[in-house]
Design goal:
The protein is α/β, with parallel strands linked by helices. Among the domains are: 54-204, Rossmann fold (3-Layer(aba) Sandwich); 460-558, 2-Layer Sandwich (GMP Synthetase, Chain A, domain 3). The protein is built from 17 helices and 28 strands. The strands form six sheets. It has an eight-stranded mixed beta sheet with strand order 7-6-5-3-4-8-9-20, with helices on both faces. Strands 17, 18, 19, 21, 22 and 23 form a six-stranded antiparallel beta sheet that branches. Helix 1 (28-39) packs antiparallel against helix 2, helix 2 (54-70) crosses helix 8 and helix 9 (229-242) packs across helix 10 (262-274). It comes from Micromonospora rubida. InterPro entries: AMP-bd_C, AMP-bd_C_sf, AMP-binding_CS, AMP-dep_synth/lig_dom, ANL_N_sf, ATP-dep_AMP-bd_enzyme.
């Protein structure tokens, strides 16, 4: 496909990047099967030095699939995963898919109330969870069987032995990784008792649903985005095509992004498998642990968010850790400051480029070329097989001129099938012709480079996670002394946004900022708790009484 007036961005593609991809046949199950066939002896997973080859991973997936089948999981059933990054997460993900069932990812930092809402919505009967959060899942939604995962079971034998030593440090580390889960079924016991799933067990097809990934809009009500095997395989193939310098069976990817997030899931769970990479897993981002792993197993490709690049580059320079193995880095989820690009590239000698996506598009749709043609400050150009339009938000049939702000629409094989059991919500974002309304205001120049100007959706993105303002506001309104509240995102010290709330108190209320923040922690995951709470006399409202969050944000920025 040659560059045309409606696809000028093709001229900016890095050498070797195709205009379109051949959509891979089959499902994500085939993706892993092919990787095991091509790269069987290669290390697929590294967890604190404990390694799993692709052949071993395929075997564990087959046994876990049989274990889940014995629990009654069948084609089309939803299986909830509430896990940090660990080998068991990867195994449970692919085992669920092997049965033709649907993975539903959940953040293990969620409160019981937040989990209950999503578990009730999708109706999973089986949940595979980190044993430390098992009590929060038991009895929630429609869950009948809780399978508890002990992270220490995946550690190297010496590290497992060290955790049993009668030392305060060992006890503290063990307590942070695992805890008893009475009443739950143990994951390790299930796998030990199961043989492999029969090879002739029906496998899913490309158009079957693979994943429900919860996201939300201005209402703050989480909705399950339905992503098919075709969607996720296509996005992995697009990512592979975008970086032609990658070497199949020779890369090492660091999973510092959570696998339960759309960005981490695609870059680490599917893209990495598609190229036979070694995936180094971290339960959470810990600077010391990552730098230790660099000495053991140097990374070559690092998907992350801007604060991680800044902290890693700064620490590596200070401690003399060599990061020059990282040839490519892809940043997303928040704006990438040019200063962070300069710092990272000066330390590593590799390229750091920014991309753009959303849960509803599996998630990546745009990326800066992995070449000197990249433009820091923009989110790049459309991926192969992806079309974009910039339109009038009030009338999507009207195109905007180059450089004129408008709503970004995207179309491609990675665009989702709709929201789980929410046809009205689906109709609002999926337009005729397969166009997805992103809800983001952008400009696109004559060469096809896109710059994000603002968000129609009033989501707050902090640390790469979405925070829905109404969730924060509802938590605040429950607290004694609070009459009303508005939550907005303000620029954070390290880039991105932080949650800030403006609160109107009842007359004669006796409360303060610390008390309100503490009260929020009872209802919200830690990253959703406002970093600041500002007491105000009133909130700006529209003529129909709706709080105008944009004006709240402007007032807070102005210090009023």
């Amino acid at each position: 496909m040659e560059p045309t007036a409606d696809r000028p961005w093709l001229r900016s593609y890095a050498p070797g990047v195709p205009a379109t991809i051949a959509e891979p046949p089959g499902s994500l199950v085939d993706l892993l099967r092919d990787a095991a066939r091509r790269f069987g002896p290669r290390v697929a997973l590294d967890f604190y030095g404990a390694t799993t080859t692709y052949a071993d991973l395929a075997d564990q997936v087959a046994r876990a699939a049989e274990a889940l089948r014995r629990l009654g999981v069948a084609r089309g059933d939803r299986v909830a995963l509430v896990l940090p990054n660990c080998p068991q997460h990867v195994v449970a993900f692919y085992a669920t898919l092997r049965l033709g069932a649907v993975v539903v990812e959940h953040n293990p930092l969620y409160t019981a109330q937040e989990l209950d809402q999503q578990l009730t919505d999708h109706g999973a009967r089986v949940a595979v969870v980190w044993d430390k959060v098992a009590p929060l899942v038991r009895g929630r939604g429609t869950v009948e069987t809780v399978v508890a995962v002990d992270l220490t079971g995946a550690l190297p034998r010496l590290k497992r032995w060290a955790l049993r030593l009668p030392l305060p440090s060992a006890r503290a580390t063990r307590a942070a990784m695992t805890s008893p889960a009475p009443g739950a079924t143990r994951w390790a016991d299930l796998l030990a008792a199961a043989g492999p799933l029969p090879a002739d067990h029906p496998a899913p097809g490309p158009d079957d649903t693979a994943l429900l990934q919860y996201t939300g809009g201005t209402t703050g009500t989480p909705k399950g985005a339905v992503l098919t095997h075709r969607n996720l395989r296509a996005n992995a193939a697009q990512g592979r095509a975008w970086v032609p310098g990658l070497r199949d069976g020779a890369e090492t990817v660091y999973a510092v992004l959570p696998l339960f997030h759309a960005y981490g899931l695609t870059l680490c769970l599917t893209f990495s498998v598609s190229i036979g990479a070694t995936l180094v897993l971290f339960p959470r981002f810990d600077l010391d642990q990552v730098l230790d792993a660099v000495r053991r197993h140097p990374p070559t490709f690092l998907p992350a968010v801007p604060p991680i690049y800044e902290r890693l580059a700064t620490a590596a320079r200070e401690r003399g850790v060599d990061l020059t193995s990282v040839r490519y880095a892809l940043s997303g989820a928040m704006a990438l400051p040019p200063a962070t690009v300069q710092l990272w590239e000066s330390v590593t000698g590799g390229l750091l480029v920014e991309g753009y996506g959303m849960t509803e598009s599996s998630p990546i749709t745009l990326g800066n070329p992995v070449s000197p043609a990249r433009r820091p400050g923009t989110v790049g150009v459309p991926f192969p097989s992806t079309d974009v339009r910039v339109v009038d938000p009030d009338d999507p049939s009207r195109e905007r001129a180059p450089g004129e702000p408008g709503e970004l629409l995207v179309r491609g094989p990675q665009v989702f099938a709709g929201y789980w059991r929410r046809p009205e919500e689906t109709a609002k974002v999926l337009l005729p012709g397969g166009w997805l309304r992103t809800g983001d205001i952008v400009t696109m120049d004559a060469e096809g480079f896109v710059t994000v100007v603002d968000r129609i959706k009033e989501l707050i993105i902090t640390g790469g996670f979405n925070v829905y303002p109404s969730e924060v506001e509802d938590a605040l309104r429950r607290l004694p002394g609070v009459r009303d509240a508005a939550a907005v995102g303000l620029p954070g010290e390290r880039g991105g946004e932080e949650v800030v709330a403006a609160v109107v108190l009842l007359p004669d209320a006796h409360t303060d900022e610390a008390t309100l923040r503490a009260g929020c922690r009872e209802h919200l995951a830690g990253y959703k708790v406002p970093r600041r709470v500002v007491m105000v006399d009133d909130l700006p409202r529209s003529q129909i009484g709706k709080v105008l969050r944009r004006e709240v944000r402007d007032r807070l920025l102005a210090g009023h």
